[in-house]
Design brief:
Chain A is mostly helical. In chain A, 76% of the residues lie in helices and 0% in strands. Chain A has seven helices and no strands. The chains are: A mainly alpha, B alpha+beta. Chains A and B meet through helix 3 and helix 6 of A and helix 1, strand 6 and helix 4 of B.
Chain lengths: 236, 142
Protein backbone atom coordinates (compact mmCIF):
# COMPACT_ATOMS: atom_id res chain seq x y z
CA UNK A 1 0.00 0.00 0.00
CA UNK A 2 2.61 2.51 1.11
CA UNK A 3 4.87 1.37 -1.73
CA UNK A 4 2.43 2.85 -4.22
CA UNK A 5 3.14 6.28 -2.76
CA UNK A 6 6.87 6.10 -3.46
CA UNK A 7 8.14 8.81 -5.80
CA UNK A 8 9.06 6.59 -8.74
CA UNK A 9 5.56 5.08 -8.80
CA UNK A 10 3.81 8.44 -8.52
CA UNK A 11 6.05 10.27 -10.97
CA UNK A 12 5.37 7.62 -13.60
CA UNK A 13 1.65 8.41 -13.55
CA UNK A 14 0.77 10.00 -16.86
CA UNK A 15 -2.09 12.30 -17.75
CA UNK A 16 -3.85 9.54 -19.67
CA UNK A 17 -4.30 7.55 -16.47
CA UNK A 18 -5.61 10.64 -14.68
CA UNK A 19 -8.00 11.37 -17.55
CA UNK A 20 -9.39 7.85 -17.44
CA UNK A 21 -9.99 8.17 -13.71
CA UNK A 22 -11.64 11.53 -14.31
CA UNK A 23 -14.06 10.08 -16.88
CA UNK A 24 -14.89 7.20 -14.53
CA UNK A 25 -15.47 9.64 -11.66
CA UNK A 26 -17.74 11.87 -13.76
CA UNK A 27 -19.82 8.89 -14.85
CA UNK A 28 -20.25 7.66 -11.28
CA UNK A 29 -21.14 11.13 -9.96
CA UNK A 30 -23.66 11.71 -12.78
CA UNK A 31 -25.30 8.34 -12.13
CA UNK A 32 -25.35 9.11 -8.39
CA UNK A 33 -26.84 12.57 -8.89
CA UNK A 34 -29.53 11.40 -11.31
CA UNK A 35 -30.40 8.53 -8.99
CA UNK A 36 -30.36 10.72 -5.90
CA UNK A 37 -32.09 13.80 -7.25
CA UNK A 38 -34.67 12.24 -9.58
CA UNK A 39 -35.12 8.48 -9.20
CA UNK A 40 -34.90 7.97 -5.43
CA UNK A 41 -38.05 8.55 -3.36
CA UNK A 42 -38.73 11.55 -1.14
CA UNK A 43 -38.58 11.01 2.61
CA UNK A 44 -41.78 10.30 4.56
CA UNK A 45 -41.23 13.27 6.88
CA UNK A 46 -38.79 15.61 5.19
CA UNK A 47 -40.03 15.28 1.63
CA UNK A 48 -37.64 16.37 -1.08
CA UNK A 49 -35.22 18.19 1.20
CA UNK A 50 -33.76 14.77 2.07
CA UNK A 51 -31.98 14.91 -1.30
CA UNK A 52 -29.41 17.30 0.18
CA UNK A 53 -28.19 14.21 2.00
CA UNK A 54 -26.61 12.83 -1.19
CA UNK A 55 -24.09 15.68 -1.12
CA UNK A 56 -23.98 16.45 2.59
CA UNK A 57 -23.24 12.98 3.93
CA UNK A 58 -20.46 12.03 1.46
CA UNK A 59 -18.87 15.47 1.91
CA UNK A 60 -18.88 15.16 5.71
CA UNK A 61 -17.61 11.61 5.50
CA UNK A 62 -14.72 12.61 3.24
CA UNK A 63 -13.88 15.69 5.33
CA UNK A 64 -13.63 13.52 8.45
CA UNK A 65 -11.84 10.67 6.70
CA UNK A 66 -9.20 12.85 5.10
CA UNK A 67 -8.33 14.56 8.37
CA UNK A 68 -8.21 11.09 9.92
CA UNK A 69 -5.56 10.17 7.36
CA UNK A 70 -3.74 13.46 7.98
CA UNK A 71 -3.71 12.67 11.71
CA UNK A 72 -2.34 9.17 11.20
CA UNK A 73 0.23 10.44 8.73
CA UNK A 74 1.28 13.03 11.32
CA UNK A 75 1.84 10.33 13.93
CA UNK A 76 3.89 8.25 11.48
CA UNK A 77 5.78 11.38 10.57
CA UNK A 78 6.70 12.28 14.15
CA UNK A 79 7.80 8.75 14.97
CA UNK A 80 9.59 7.58 11.84
CA UNK A 81 10.23 10.90 10.03
CA UNK A 82 9.92 9.35 6.57
CA UNK A 83 10.73 11.76 3.80
CA UNK A 84 7.62 11.43 1.64
CA UNK A 85 5.01 11.15 4.39
CA UNK A 86 4.49 14.88 5.14
CA UNK A 87 3.60 15.51 1.50
CA UNK A 88 0.71 13.09 1.76
CA UNK A 89 -0.87 15.25 4.46
CA UNK A 90 0.01 18.46 2.66
CA UNK A 91 -1.69 17.23 -0.53
CA UNK A 92 -4.80 15.95 1.25
CA UNK A 93 -5.52 19.04 3.34
CA UNK A 94 -6.98 21.38 0.68
CA UNK A 95 -9.31 18.64 -0.57
CA UNK A 96 -10.62 17.95 2.93
CA UNK A 97 -10.95 21.66 3.59
CA UNK A 98 -13.21 22.13 0.57
CA UNK A 99 -15.33 19.14 1.54
CA UNK A 100 -15.71 20.31 5.15
CA UNK A 101 -16.94 23.63 3.81
CA UNK A 102 -19.36 21.84 1.46
CA UNK A 103 -20.57 19.79 4.41
CA UNK A 104 -21.19 22.87 6.54
CA UNK A 105 -22.94 24.84 3.78
CA UNK A 106 -25.18 21.97 2.61
CA UNK A 107 -25.92 21.06 6.23
CA UNK A 108 -26.95 24.63 6.86
CA UNK A 109 -29.22 24.63 3.79
CA UNK A 110 -30.70 21.35 4.96
CA UNK A 111 -31.23 22.63 8.47
CA UNK A 112 -33.39 25.56 7.38
CA UNK A 113 -36.36 23.55 5.97
CA UNK A 114 -36.09 20.69 8.50
CA UNK A 115 -34.94 22.06 11.84
CA UNK A 116 -36.10 25.60 11.20
CA UNK A 117 -32.66 27.19 11.57
CA UNK A 118 -29.53 27.65 9.48
CA UNK A 119 -27.07 27.28 12.30
CA UNK A 120 -26.94 26.45 16.00
CA UNK A 121 -23.92 25.92 18.22
CA UNK A 122 -24.63 22.36 19.21
CA UNK A 123 -21.78 19.89 19.73
CA UNK A 124 -21.86 18.35 16.25
CA UNK A 125 -22.06 21.60 14.30
CA UNK A 126 -19.48 23.32 16.46
CA UNK A 127 -16.97 20.48 16.25
CA UNK A 128 -17.47 20.33 12.49
CA UNK A 129 -16.72 24.05 12.31
CA UNK A 130 -13.59 23.44 14.40
CA UNK A 131 -12.58 20.74 11.91
CA UNK A 132 -12.81 23.35 9.16
CA UNK A 133 -10.60 25.67 11.24
CA UNK A 134 -8.12 22.82 11.73
CA UNK A 135 -7.90 22.41 7.97
CA UNK A 136 -7.35 26.13 7.49
CA UNK A 137 -4.65 26.22 10.18
CA UNK A 138 -2.95 23.15 8.73
CA UNK A 139 -2.89 24.56 5.20
CA UNK A 140 -1.72 28.00 6.29
CA UNK A 141 1.07 26.59 8.42
CA UNK A 142 2.44 24.84 5.34
CA UNK A 143 2.06 28.05 3.32
CA UNK A 144 3.50 30.47 5.88
CA UNK A 145 6.58 28.56 7.00
CA UNK A 146 9.26 28.39 4.35
CA UNK A 147 11.41 26.18 6.54
CA UNK A 148 10.19 22.72 5.56
CA UNK A 149 11.43 20.93 8.69
CA UNK A 150 9.75 23.39 11.00
CA UNK A 151 6.53 23.36 8.98
CA UNK A 152 6.62 19.59 9.00
CA UNK A 153 6.88 19.43 12.79
CA UNK A 154 4.18 22.02 13.51
CA UNK A 155 1.71 20.63 10.98
CA UNK A 156 2.20 17.16 12.44
CA UNK A 157 1.26 18.46 15.87
CA UNK A 158 -1.80 20.19 14.37
CA UNK A 159 -2.70 16.94 12.61
CA UNK A 160 -2.56 14.95 15.83
CA UNK A 161 -4.57 17.54 17.79
CA UNK A 162 -7.13 17.49 14.99
CA UNK A 163 -7.43 13.75 15.41
CA UNK A 164 -9.01 14.32 18.83
CA UNK A 165 -11.48 16.68 17.20
CA UNK A 166 -12.35 14.02 14.62
CA UNK A 167 -13.30 11.67 17.44
CA UNK A 168 -15.37 14.42 19.05
CA UNK A 169 -17.18 15.15 15.76
CA UNK A 170 -17.93 11.47 15.30
CA UNK A 171 -19.25 10.83 18.80
CA UNK A 172 -20.70 14.26 19.62
CA UNK A 173 -24.18 13.03 18.73
CA UNK A 174 -23.77 10.06 21.07
CA UNK A 175 -22.14 11.75 24.05
CA UNK A 176 -24.24 14.92 24.25
CA UNK A 177 -27.74 16.12 23.46
CA UNK A 178 -27.51 17.74 20.04
CA UNK A 179 -29.91 19.15 17.49
CA UNK A 180 -28.17 17.04 14.87
CA UNK A 181 -29.56 13.50 14.67
CA UNK A 182 -27.33 10.47 15.40
CA UNK A 183 -25.60 8.59 12.59
CA UNK A 184 -27.83 6.59 10.26
CA UNK A 185 -24.99 4.38 9.09
CA UNK A 186 -22.94 2.65 11.76
CA UNK A 187 -20.63 -0.32 11.76
CA UNK A 188 -22.52 -2.15 14.47
CA UNK A 189 -26.11 -2.08 13.23
CA UNK A 190 -28.12 -2.15 10.01
CA UNK A 191 -28.34 1.22 8.26
CA UNK A 192 -31.41 3.26 9.16
CA UNK A 193 -31.77 4.50 5.61
CA UNK A 194 -34.07 2.67 3.22
CA UNK A 195 -32.07 0.93 0.47
CA UNK A 196 -33.66 3.07 -2.26
CA UNK A 197 -31.91 6.04 -0.61
CA UNK A 198 -28.81 4.20 0.57
CA UNK A 199 -27.76 3.11 -2.93
CA UNK A 200 -27.48 6.63 -4.43
CA UNK A 201 -25.75 7.76 -1.24
CA UNK A 202 -23.09 5.08 -1.63
CA UNK A 203 -22.70 5.80 -5.35
CA UNK A 204 -22.10 9.47 -4.53
CA UNK A 205 -19.63 8.52 -1.80
CA UNK A 206 -17.66 6.34 -4.24
CA UNK A 207 -17.72 9.04 -6.93
CA UNK A 208 -16.59 11.85 -4.65
CA UNK A 209 -13.93 9.64 -3.04
CA UNK A 210 -12.57 8.92 -6.51
CA UNK A 211 -12.50 12.68 -7.08
CA UNK A 212 -10.38 13.00 -3.94
CA UNK A 213 -8.00 10.32 -5.19
CA UNK A 214 -7.56 12.14 -8.51
CA UNK A 215 -6.90 15.53 -6.94
CA UNK A 216 -4.61 13.92 -4.39
CA UNK A 217 -2.53 12.17 -7.06
CA UNK A 218 -2.14 15.41 -8.98
CA UNK A 219 -1.19 17.46 -5.92
CA UNK A 220 1.09 14.80 -4.51
CA UNK A 221 2.89 14.45 -7.84
CA UNK A 222 3.52 18.19 -7.92
CA UNK A 223 4.90 18.09 -4.38
CA UNK A 224 7.30 15.30 -5.35
CA UNK A 225 8.41 17.17 -8.47
CA UNK A 226 9.08 20.24 -6.32
CA UNK A 227 11.10 18.09 -3.93
CA UNK A 228 13.16 16.72 -6.79
CA UNK A 229 13.83 20.17 -8.22
CA UNK A 230 14.93 21.42 -4.82
CA UNK A 231 17.36 18.53 -4.47
CA UNK A 232 18.76 19.18 -7.92
CA UNK A 233 19.28 22.86 -7.23
CA UNK A 234 21.05 21.93 -4.00
CA UNK A 235 23.50 19.74 -5.93
CA UNK A 236 24.16 22.31 -8.64
CA UNK B 1 12.84 -4.04 15.29
CA UNK B 2 12.82 -0.27 15.84
CA UNK B 3 15.88 1.86 16.33
CA UNK B 4 16.42 3.48 19.71
CA UNK B 5 15.46 6.91 18.39
CA UNK B 6 12.14 5.65 17.08
CA UNK B 7 11.45 3.85 20.36
CA UNK B 8 11.91 6.96 22.47
CA UNK B 9 9.70 8.96 20.12
CA UNK B 10 7.03 6.28 20.36
CA UNK B 11 7.09 6.35 24.16
CA UNK B 12 7.00 10.15 24.35
CA UNK B 13 4.13 10.35 21.88
CA UNK B 14 2.21 7.65 23.69
CA UNK B 15 2.47 9.54 27.00
CA UNK B 16 1.53 12.85 25.43
CA UNK B 17 -1.50 11.28 23.78
CA UNK B 18 -2.66 9.67 27.03
CA UNK B 19 -2.29 12.93 28.91
CA UNK B 20 -4.16 14.89 26.25
CA UNK B 21 -7.01 12.39 26.24
CA UNK B 22 -7.34 12.76 30.02
CA UNK B 23 -7.24 16.55 29.83
CA UNK B 24 -9.87 16.63 27.08
CA UNK B 25 -12.05 14.18 29.00
CA UNK B 26 -12.06 16.24 32.18
CA UNK B 27 -12.40 19.48 30.25
CA UNK B 28 -15.63 18.32 28.61
CA UNK B 29 -16.92 16.70 31.78
CA UNK B 30 -16.68 19.93 33.70
CA UNK B 31 -18.32 21.76 30.84
CA UNK B 32 -21.10 19.21 30.39
CA UNK B 33 -23.92 21.73 30.96
CA UNK B 34 -22.55 24.04 28.29
CA UNK B 35 -21.79 21.35 25.75
CA UNK B 36 -25.24 19.78 25.73
CA UNK B 37 -27.56 21.69 23.43
CA UNK B 38 -30.72 20.98 25.40
CA UNK B 39 -32.00 19.32 28.56
CA UNK B 40 -34.66 16.64 28.71
CA UNK B 41 -37.67 17.21 30.99
CA UNK B 42 -36.24 14.65 33.41
CA UNK B 43 -32.91 16.48 33.55
CA UNK B 44 -34.81 19.69 34.35
CA UNK B 45 -36.81 17.81 36.98
CA UNK B 46 -33.63 16.60 38.68
CA UNK B 47 -31.74 19.88 38.38
CA UNK B 48 -31.26 21.82 41.57
CA UNK B 49 -29.61 24.98 40.30
CA UNK B 50 -32.02 26.32 37.71
CA UNK B 51 -31.84 30.04 37.00
CA UNK B 52 -35.35 31.00 36.02
CA UNK B 53 -34.42 34.31 34.41
CA UNK B 54 -31.97 32.63 32.06
CA UNK B 55 -32.85 31.03 28.77
CA UNK B 56 -32.82 27.24 28.55
CA UNK B 57 -33.45 24.76 25.80
CA UNK B 58 -35.62 21.74 26.42
CA UNK B 59 -35.87 18.83 24.04
CA UNK B 60 -38.02 15.75 23.73
CA UNK B 61 -41.01 14.47 21.83
CA UNK B 62 -44.24 16.35 21.30
CA UNK B 63 -46.86 14.46 23.28
CA UNK B 64 -49.76 12.92 21.36
CA UNK B 65 -52.93 15.04 21.33
CA UNK B 66 -51.23 17.80 23.28
CA UNK B 67 -51.03 20.53 20.64
CA UNK B 68 -53.51 23.34 21.21
CA UNK B 69 -53.43 26.17 18.71
CA UNK B 70 -55.28 29.42 19.18
CA UNK B 71 -54.88 32.60 17.16
CA UNK B 72 -52.01 33.86 19.26
CA UNK B 73 -50.01 30.99 20.57
CA UNK B 74 -49.28 27.29 20.32
CA UNK B 75 -49.35 25.26 23.50
CA UNK B 76 -48.02 21.73 23.60
CA UNK B 77 -46.31 19.26 25.91
CA UNK B 78 -42.73 18.05 25.60
CA UNK B 79 -42.26 14.59 27.03
CA UNK B 80 -39.46 12.10 27.50
CA UNK B 81 -41.97 9.51 28.77
CA UNK B 82 -40.88 10.08 32.36
CA UNK B 83 -41.47 13.78 32.86
CA UNK B 84 -43.33 16.44 30.92
CA UNK B 85 -43.08 20.17 30.42
CA UNK B 86 -45.81 22.39 29.04
CA UNK B 87 -44.60 24.82 26.40
CA UNK B 88 -46.27 28.08 25.45
CA UNK B 89 -44.97 29.50 22.18
CA UNK B 90 -45.96 32.49 20.09
CA UNK B 91 -44.92 32.36 16.48
CA UNK B 92 -44.59 30.08 13.50
CA UNK B 93 -43.63 26.47 14.11
CA UNK B 94 -41.20 24.69 11.76
CA UNK B 95 -42.58 22.41 9.02
CA UNK B 96 -41.53 19.22 10.73
CA UNK B 97 -43.19 20.14 14.02
CA UNK B 98 -45.72 17.37 14.72
CA UNK B 99 -46.98 15.00 17.38
CA UNK B 100 -44.60 12.25 18.42
CA UNK B 101 -41.74 14.01 16.64
CA UNK B 102 -38.63 15.50 18.17
CA UNK B 103 -38.67 19.14 19.18
CA UNK B 104 -36.44 21.64 20.96
CA UNK B 105 -37.95 24.69 22.63
CA UNK B 106 -35.87 27.66 23.76
CA UNK B 107 -37.13 30.13 26.30
CA UNK B 108 -37.53 30.93 29.97
CA UNK B 109 -38.96 28.57 32.53
CA UNK B 110 -41.82 29.82 34.69
CA UNK B 111 -41.38 26.82 36.92
CA UNK B 112 -40.09 23.31 36.39
CA UNK B 113 -43.22 22.35 34.47
CA UNK B 114 -43.93 25.40 32.32
CA UNK B 115 -41.83 27.05 29.61
CA UNK B 116 -42.43 30.29 27.73
CA UNK B 117 -40.65 29.57 24.46
CA UNK B 118 -39.54 32.15 21.92
CA UNK B 119 -37.95 29.68 19.51
CA UNK B 120 -38.96 26.22 18.35
CA UNK B 121 -36.70 23.89 16.41
CA UNK B 122 -37.73 20.55 14.96
CA UNK B 123 -35.40 17.65 15.65
CA UNK B 124 -35.68 14.73 13.30
CA UNK B 125 -34.32 11.24 13.81
CA UNK B 126 -31.84 9.21 11.81
CA UNK B 127 -34.44 7.14 9.94
CA UNK B 128 -34.98 7.83 6.27
CA UNK B 129 -37.75 6.03 4.39
CA UNK B 130 -40.01 6.57 1.41
CA UNK B 131 -43.67 7.27 2.31
CA UNK B 132 -44.91 3.99 0.78
CA UNK B 133 -42.64 1.97 3.04
CA UNK B 134 -43.83 3.67 6.21
CA UNK B 135 -47.43 3.14 5.08
CA UNK B 136 -46.78 -0.56 4.56
CA UNK B 137 -45.03 -0.76 7.92
CA UNK B 138 -47.95 0.88 9.72
CA UNK B 139 -50.39 -1.44 7.96
CA UNK B 140 -48.55 -4.57 9.00
CA UNK B 141 -48.42 -3.37 12.61
CA UNK B 142 -52.16 -2.77 12.85
Amino acid sequence: MLKNLFPNKILSINSEFINNLLIGMLLIVIVGLVYGLFLSPADYIQGDSVRIMYIHVPASFIALGLFGIIGLVSILNLIFSLKIVPFVGKSLAPIGCVFSLISIVTGSLWGKPTWGTLWVWDARLTSMFILFLFYITYIFTWKMLSNNRKANLITSVIGILGLFNIIIVKYSVVWWNTLHQPSSITLTSAPKIHHSMLVPLIIMLVGLSLYCVIIFLMKYKIELIKLKLKKKSNYD
Amino acid sequence: MFTKKVKTRLIILFFLLTISILIIYFFFRSLEDNVVYFFSPTEIFNKTNIEFNKKVRIGGLVKVNSIIKNDKSTIFVITDFKNEIIVNYEGLVPNLFAEEKGVIAEGKLKDKKYLFADKILAKHDENYMPPEVIKALNKSQN
